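The protein record passed on for reference:
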Amino acid sequence: MEQLLAAGKCKTAICQSINMDMRAYDRLMSMTPEERESSFQTKMMTVHEEKVKQKMERVNEVRELKKIGCSNHEISRRTGLNRSTIRRYLDENFNPVHASYGKKKNGKLIPYIKEIDECFAKGVMGSDIEKRYVGWDMMVHHQLCGST
């Protein structure tokens, strides 16, 4: 929206170009950037943030127990965590976010998308393309229709 405003577009033109209600536009423009960011968070992002927060509370609990002189075995006994987990939590480079968070897996059709698009561009009917990929017909259908 800011780019459209900077380009000299009026509120009505912006709302029409991005298919947004003017009241929603006014509400978004009155928010701070932080408020806007939080309003667009998905439920998955919110759940993830909560899990990271809970894990860090656990990590801090383990670190506090270590500071007061507890051994890894004693921390394990008190918290119910495995000793290898205790060692990971005590590592100063520990990251509570899983390494694969935010990475999207490639679909099974990725190696064939170019070939499917070429067939479609040549005018081959979608049903004929689907027949070439037995067992994957619905995935091919979604690719041809542009849905996810």
Summary: The CA atoms of residues 62 and 79 lie 8 Å apart. The mean pLDDT is 79.
